[in-house]
From TrEMBL:
Name of this protein: Translation machinery-associated protein 22
CDD domains in the record: DENR_C (cd11607)
UniProt remark on domains: The SUI1 domain may be involved in RNA binding.
UniProt-listed PANTHER family: DENSITY-REGULATED PROTEIN, DENSITY-REGULATED PROTEIN HOMOLOG
InterPro entries reported in the protein's UniProt record: DENR/SUI1_TIF, DENR_C, DENR_eukaryotes, DENR_N, SUI1, SUI1_dom_sf
Amino acid sequence: MATEKPEPVKVLYCGVCGLPAEYCEFGPDFDKCKPWLREHAPDLYPDLFAGGETDVEKTAEQLQGVGISSGGGAASSGGEASASKQEEVKRLPGGKIKKKEKPEVVIEKIVRNKRKCVTVVKGLELFGVKLSDASKKLGKKFATGASVVKGPTEKEQIDVQGDISYDIVEFVTDTWPDVPESAIFFIEDGKKVPAA
């Protein structure tokens, strides 16, 4: 007597936000998902689509403004195609939009044992600075220990022993002229504050 294996569950994922179709209403872009859901999964939200075509037309116009085409048709002119490529945004899983960030250096002072401090420098590599060379220069300038470590987000950062957070801005801008002072920020009380 052989037992039959259960069939795997087939899940329909939304083409817009990437969530399972029945969870689109809980995602961040449900209005943008509606045209896709109407076409691919009309039985999931029958009361939602009873209103008519106007809702779908509005969301289709919004999607084209973001750079996502709702119909799959080609743009009518070359100018429109280049404009939509420029406006195209990177979408993360879950439908979140990744913003283009300009490079910046973030300096944070972390206090340990109520008297020992570590100054953390993040983002120098975005300006073409080699972190190993930068840590050597920082350690030599401030006569302290400095090392390149992986931070909590798996990005490399420089940890410098001691509280040098306000002396470091002048040193960074003098040593690496590619780093403008307007791109340097401090983390104070959990908020990002410009150094300038």
